[in-house]
Amino acid sequence: MKHYPIDSKPDRSITSQTEEYLYFSGTNYLGIGSVKEFEDLVVKAIRKYGLNHGSSRSSNVQLEVYGKFEQLFAQEAGAEAGLLFSSGFLAGSVAVQTLKKTADLVIVSPDAHPAIQPNDAGFISTMSMEEWEKDCLTISQGYKNKHIAFVSNAVDPLKLKVHSFDWMKKLSPKNRYTLLIDDSHAFGVLGQGIYGTYSQFNHPNVAVITCGSLGKGLGLPGGIVLGPKYFIEKLQSEIKFRTASPPPPAFFEAFLNGTHHFERQRIKLQDNVSYFHHLTTDNPDIHYADGYPVFTFDNEEWVSLLSENGIIISSFPYPFLEDPAVNRIVVSGYHQKSDLEKVAAILNSL
């Protein structure tokens, strides 16, 4: 695996050791960091709040911007309440550990991110999602008057599968259920506008909680948990929330004043994804999930060939070092049509 050191922020192109490349990697799906108007809002907010706020959210002095962000984000997502954390990993970890305290059984999907693994097990399941779903239904039939929790990603960013969770309608009515979804790769991309998948999984007999990183599609340095008010209140009393510093406040002030920039970038991203899919739709070696801004292929030699033609994609072993490289072409809101045409032309010629 070749590395490309850079000394400035990635954009639609990067420069590494004097060589310039088109950049189709990372998880900056909306490309919000390349929007100067939003960057100006962040700089203005930094002058108001400073670089950081190194104080607990349980302190007697509270910055109002965090609560305003949580209220808006939860409202737009369709949730009763939300809670902001310093990272998506912390948000997921605290959410699943809190859920584990009240659930009689926690069933984790094969693609669940380590952040939402209740026992720090990591990616260990060889079961397919279809097998896991059938297993969940079977388990639900074998219990009565239990609280059963299901934990999963909203989307598998490696195998490019967006989950619907329609199977939950077939769960046995004899139990109480909670569904915890990691929306890290959905915020800004899938679901309700830029606010993730919360509203689309509103099953009457299942309590829904979503969590995840805001630092991918939305480009904000933090994580969030969305859910019923009673669950968010539990999280607020958790020691890992009460004693942790919040993320830098300026980004969330900028978000509150600049949501229109995110919506505009989402439209650009959707157009780019649709266009690239159109350009590669006749290529059987390119894999794609409807609406998701990532395209994959299996041929390892293509990575070097793209690099030789001035294009960098995401290609590295994941999640473990001994795993094979995952090759992903990541389309962003900052890409131009000519960028997409260049990549597609090379791929279609191989």
Could you outline the blueprint of secondary structure elements for this entry?
Elements: E1 13-16, E2 19-24, H1 36-49, H2 64-77, E3 81-85, H3 88-102, E4 105-108, H4 129-141, E5 147-153, E6 155-156, E7 161-162, E8 176-182, E9 206-213, E10 223-227, H5 229-236, H6 239-242, H7 250-257, H8 259-280, E11 287-288, E12 294-296, H9 301-308, E13 311-317, E14 325-330, H10 337-349
Parallel strand pairs: 2-13, 4-5, 5-8, 8-9
Antiparallel strand pairs: 1-2, 3-10, 6-7, 9-10, 11-12, 12-14, 13-14
Helix pairs in contact: 1-7, 2-7, 8-10
Q: How many strands, what sense, and barrel or not for the largest sheet?
A: 6 strands, mixed
How much of the sequence lies in strands comes to: 15-25%
Shape: globular
At the fold tier of CATH, the topology name of the largest domain is Aspartate Aminotransferase, domain 2
Q: Do you know the CATH architecture of the largest domain?
A: 3-Layer(aba) Sandwich
- Class by helix and strand content? alpha/beta
The number of helical elements comes to 10
Unreliable residue stretches: none
Strand order of the largest sheet: 1-2-13-14-12-11
Helical content (DSSP H or I, runs of 4+): 25-40%
> Termini separation (Å)?
21 Å
Number of strands: 14
Count of discrete structural domains: 2
Query: How large is the radius of gyration?
Result: 21 Å
